[in-house]
Amino acid sequence: MKRLATVLLSLFTIPVFAQNVPYIAHDLTKENMFSTNIEGPNFDSRGRLFVVNFKHDGTVGLISPHTGRGTVFVELPDSSIANSIVFDRKGNMLLADFVGHNILKVNMKTRNISVFCHSDQFNQPNDFCINAQGQLFASDPSWKNGTGQIWRIDPDGTPTLLDGNMGTTNGICLSPDEKILYVNESVQRKIWKFDVDDSGNISNKRLFAEFPDFGFDGMKTDREGNLYVTRYGKGTIAMLRPDGEVFREIPLKGNPAAISYSAGTTAGRFTLRCRIANAWKFSVRRFPVRVYKSFGMMAMASVSPYLPISACSSAIILFFIFSCFLLLMRFVISEGSFFRSYSSQPFTRV
């Protein structure tokens, strides 16, 4: 039994060891592949990664999540510049155009670009998220005034002002069950949460978290309801539990700025963009997510939930696996010898 306990203890050592591995970033793209307005990486249902302002402002780039190479997918008309990307239920790409005060729609088959929603009351649509009903929730900051708004855009393109008395609204996301809307204010460094009803209306505004320094940008929840918040100026991603407690900060190279889930994956992947001009790849052991972040001089990175397989970590893992195998074989052989010797004893009928 002691041998069996040793074997089991060794087998449990691997996952415990892996849980303590730190988050590690790896370059995904080369520097200066994007303009300084790099933003909104997101995946479509086919697993293709798109990022705005590839090579120069006013473009959407198609980036390989494996090699980091990219091509221009579309050029936006009328001097429009996008800031965020989501995909609707039909697979269309929706873009927050902060120059034209529009939400643009891109047909992914024809690459035709049209105006999905326009309002002269928009300040500059910045970030948005989408629910299962196809409703968009958009942040709309006025940077010069230090104020902001929250909008809902319905599937027919109709905008509804949900809250016009916010600070500089920026990052916005829904909880996994879509019953809570999180909105942060970059300058005021506050994160608010609202209840969301079945019609997409919000209520019961309350303070979720507040930080004393640096700024905020994009954010996203994971499947467990934890909130990932990019801390602009500090170069980290703060991880908050559903009760608002900060339980970890992930250090990055550059200033992180946007996060969004990729579509069509059971792994719960999400992407994020930062400020420095090339892409980065990160490894996160605990959560089943893959993150791509862009940086301001134009770069990107990814955070995956799996153990980063460096030469050192690979050697350690193989060592543990091999040790466990030897212990298991020793146990099987020794116990087999015991049973053979026991079975060779004469059998006496009682």
What structural category arises from helix and sheet content? Answer: mainly beta
Number of helices: 2
- Please indicate the percent range of residues in DSSP E strands (runs of 2 or more): over 45%
What composes the largest sheet?
A: 4 strands, mixed
Separation, N- and C-terminal Cα atoms: 30 Å
Tally the beta strands. 26
**Helix/strand order, N-terminal first:** HEEEEEEEEEEEEEEEEEEEEEEEEEEH
The level of helicity is: 10-25%
What is the overall silhouette? globular
Query: Taking Cα atoms only, what radius of gyration do you get, to the nearest Å?
Result: 25 Å
Low-pLDDT runs of 5+ residues are: 2-21, 261-298, 304-311
Q: Keywords for this structure?
A:
single chain, 350 residues, mainly beta, 4-stranded mixed sheet, 4-stranded antiparallel sheet, disordered N terminus
What can you see in these coordinates?
It contains 2 helices and 26 strands. By secondary structure, it is mainly β. The strands form 7 sheets. Strands 1, 24, 25 and 26 form a 4-stranded mixed sheet that branches. Helix 1 runs antiparallel to helix 2 (311-343). The longest helix has 33 residues, at 311-343. The protein is globular. It starts with a helix and ends in a 7-residue tail after the last helix.
